C-alpha cells in the first residue's frame, strides 16, 4: 500500500479505529517529569509541543511552541516492559493429596495477553524489539511468555524528527527512520502525517482511516527531515567491527577509570531496551500448600548475578562494566550477528554518574571521542 496522508485533526480516528479493532491503546504521556507509555484514548493526552533535553546523567522536558505530537526523543521506558515483563510468573505448584508425582500439580502460567496497540514508538525501540524477538522467539527455545505478549502487540511507529543530544541511532543503523518491523509507520510534518502499513494487520487498520494519497513533495520533505535529524547526531559508535578491538583491550586502564565513577546501580541495564538478564525466585503462599515461580529482571551489575559455588566471578564494578560492554558490543555479535546496541542513548541520560557508553567504547577500542558534552 502506498504512502498516505493523514490530517492532524484525524489523528483521533487512529485511536478510535484501533480501539474498535479490539486493541487497548497505549501512547506517550507525561508522568512524573518523563515521557512514558500509558493507556490513552484521547490525543489531547499526547505530549504535544514537548521536547526532551538529554545529556549524560540528565533528562529534562521543555514545552515549546511546536504543535507536533511526537517531537520528543525517547523516555526511560521502551517496549521492553510491555513484552518482557519486569516480573513474570512462570509456573505454579500446588500440593494435592490425590495427585500422582508425589502429590504435586504443576501449571504453566503463560498469560492470556491483552491485544495492545502502542502509538508513537521510536525507531530505535522497534529495532530493539526485533533484537529481543530474535533472543526470545527465534532462538532454539521459544519463550512462550514473551511470545504471547508479542503476538498481541500492534505498533504504530513514528520516525524521529527531533533527536536528543544522547541519540546515536544513525551510527548503529537503527534510526532515526525505519525500514521495517512496524505495523504502521508515520512521519510527522507540520501539515500532518505520512502513514504507511508494514504488515497485514497494519493494512487493515489503514484502510479504515480517512487518508488521501501523499504527494511527492510531502514524501520528499519527510525523507529530508529524517536525513537532517541523522546529521544532527554528534555521538556515534565506531562500527560493528569494534568487538575485535574491545576483546583485545581486556587490561585497558580505562575499565578501572570507569569503575571509579560507576555505582553498579544497574540503571543502564534497566533502561536498555535490549538487556534481558534475569533471576528466578520462588514465592510460597501462606497456606503452605502452593508456590509460584517468578522471573524478574536482573542486571550484570548486581553482585549476585555472577555467583557460582558461593563466589562472585565479577566482584568489582570494573569487571561488571567490562562484562556489560563486552557482551553488548562484543559477544552479542557472535550470538546474534549484530551488536546489542540500537543507539537509543538511554544508558547515557539515566546513568547517575553520567558515564557515556559510546564515548567509552570508542576510547577503549582505539579512538578517543571528540564531541562536546
Ligand atoms: S547500550 Fe545504551 S544506547 Fe545502546 S541500546 Fe542499550 S541503553 Fe540504548
Ligand atoms: S554505568 Fe551508570 S547506570 Fe550503569 S551501573 Fe554504572 S553508575 Fe549505574
Structure in a nutshell:
It is built from 13 helices and 16 strands. It is α+β, with helices and mostly antiparallel strands. The relative contact order is 0.16.
Task: Describe this protein's structure.
By secondary structure, this protein is of the alpha+beta class. The protein folds into two domains: 202 residues, no CATH class; 112 residues, no CATH class. 31% of the residues lie in helices and 24% in strands. The strands form four sheets. The chain has an eight-stranded mixed beta sheet, with helices on both faces. Strands 7-6-14-13 form a four-stranded antiparallel beta sheet, with no helix packed on it. A hairpin with a 2-residue loop joins strand 15 and strand 16. The mean pLDDT is 94. Bound molecules: iron/sulfur cluster (2 copies).
Tell me which ligands are bound.
iron/sulfur cluster
User: Residue share in helices?
Assistant: 25-40%
The assigned structural class equals alpha+beta
* First-residue to last-residue Cα separation: 43 Å
Number of strands: 16
Mean pLDDT: 94
**Main β-sheet, spatial strand arrangement:** 3-2-8-9-10-11-1-12
Instruction: Flag low-confidence runs.
Output: none
The H-and-E topology, N to C, reads as EHEEEEHEEEHHEHEEHEHHHHEEEEHHH
Strand content: 15-25%
Radius of gyration: 22 Å
Q: If helices are DSSP runs of H or I spanning 4 or more residues, what is the number of helices?
A: 13
Our count of domains comes out at: 2
Indicate the overall shape.
globular
> What is the makeup of the main sheet?
8 strands, mixed
Give the arrangement of secondary structure elements.
Elements: E1 4-6, H1 11-20, E2 24-31, E3 34-39, E4 50-55, E5 58-63, H2 80-83, E6 87-95, E7 104-108, E8 116-121, H3 123-136, H4 144-151, E9 153-158, H5 169-172, E10 184-189, E11 192-197, H6 200-207, E12 212-213, H7 216-232, H8 242-247, H9 253-261, H10 267-271, E13 278-284, E14 290-297, E15 307-308, E16 311-312, H11 317-336, H12 346-349, H13 357-364
Parallel strand pairs: 2-8, 8-9, 9-10
Antiparallel strand pairs: 1-11, 1-12, 2-3, 4-5, 6-7, 6-14, 10-11, 13-14, 15-16
Helix pairs in contact: 9-11
Amino acid at each position: 500500500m502506498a504512502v498516505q496522508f493523514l490530517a492532524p485533526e484525524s489523528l483521533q480516528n487512529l485511536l478510535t479505529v484501533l480501539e474498535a479493532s479490539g486493541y487497548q491503546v497505549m501512547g506517550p504521556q507525561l508522568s512524573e517529569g518523563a515521557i512514558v507509555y500509558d493507556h490513552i484514548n484521547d490525543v489531547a493526552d499526547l505530549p504535544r509541543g514537548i521536547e526532551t533535553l538529554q545529556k549524560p546523567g540528565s533528562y529534562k522536558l521543555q514545552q515549546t511552541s511546536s504543535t507536533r505530537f511526537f517531537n520528543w526523543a525517547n523516555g526511560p521506558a521502551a517496549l521492553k516492559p510491555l513484552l518482557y515483563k519486569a516480573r513474570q510468573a512462570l509456573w505454579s505448584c500446588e500440593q494435592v493429596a490425590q495427585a500422582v508425582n508425589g502429590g504435586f500439580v504443576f501449571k504453566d502460567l503463560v498469560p492470556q495477553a491483552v491485544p495492545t496497540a502502542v502509538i508513537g514508538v521510536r525507531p530505535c525501540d522497534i529495532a530493539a524489539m526485533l533484537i529481543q524477538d530474535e533472543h526470545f522467539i527465534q532462538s532454539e527455545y521459544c519463550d512462550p511468555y514473551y511470545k504471547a505478549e508479542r503476538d498481541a502487540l500492534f505498533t504504530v511507529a513514528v520516525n524521529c524528527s527531533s533527536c536528543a543530544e544522547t541519540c546515536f541511532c544513525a551510527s548503529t543503523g537503527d534510526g532515526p527512520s525505519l525500514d521495517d518491523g512496524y505495523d504502521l509507520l508515520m512521519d510527522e510534518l507540520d501539515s500532518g502525517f505520512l502513514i504507511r502499513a508494514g504488515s497485514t494487520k497494519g493494512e487493515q487498520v489503514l484502510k479504515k482511516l480517512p487518508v488521501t494519497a501523499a504527494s511527492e513533495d510531502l514524501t520528499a520533505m519527510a525523507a529530508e527531515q529524517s536525513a537532517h535529524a541523522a546529521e544532527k547526531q554528534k555521538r556515534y559508535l565506531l562500527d560493528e567491527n569494534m568487538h575485535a578491538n574491545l576483546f583485545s583491550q581486556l587490561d585497558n586502564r580505562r575499565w578501572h577509570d570507569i569503575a571509579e565513577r560507576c555505582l553498579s546501580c544497574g540503571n543502564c541495564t534497566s533502561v536498555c531496551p535490549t538487556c534481558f538478564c534475569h533471576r528466578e525466585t520462588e514465592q510460597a503462599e501462606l497456606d503452605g500448600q502452593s508456590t509460584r515461580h517468578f522471573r524478574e529482571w536482573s542486571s550484570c551489575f548486581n553482585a549476585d548475578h555472577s555467583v557460582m559455588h558461593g563466589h562472585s566471578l565479577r566482584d568489582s564494578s570494573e569487571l561488571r562494566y567490562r562484562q556489560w560492554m563486552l557482551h553488548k558490543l562484543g559477544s552479542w555479535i557472535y550470538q546474534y550477528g549484530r551488536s546489542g546496541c540500537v543507539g537509543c542513548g538511554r544508558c547515557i541520560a539515566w546513568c547517575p554518574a553520567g558515564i557515556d557508553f559510546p564515548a567509552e567504547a570508542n576510547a577503549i577500542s582505539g579512538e578517543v571521542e571528540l564531541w562536546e558534552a
